[in-house]
Amino acid sequence: MERERAVLVELVREAYPQLETLVNLDQWMSGSGVWN
Questions:
Q1: Predicted TM-score (pTM) of this structure
Q2: From which domain of life does this come (predicted)?
Q3: Domain residue limits, the chain
Q4: DSSP letters of the chain?
Q5: What is the pLDDT of residues 10-32, one digit of tens each?
Q6: CA distance 11 to 13
Q7: Interior angle at CA 31, CA 7 and CA 35, nearest 5
């Protein structure tokens, strides 16, 4: 699951490079429960 999440974060960062909040995207997803 960690690998899938890392790939997703990477894809989103490539799609939306202007969003600096993506730095914390992995932490947000880990705590949201949606991706667990």
A1: 0.42
A2: Bacteria
A3: 2-32
A4: -HHHHHHHHHHHHHH-TT-GGGGGHHHHHHHHSTT-
A5: 888 788 776 666 556 667 767 76
A6: 5
A7: 45
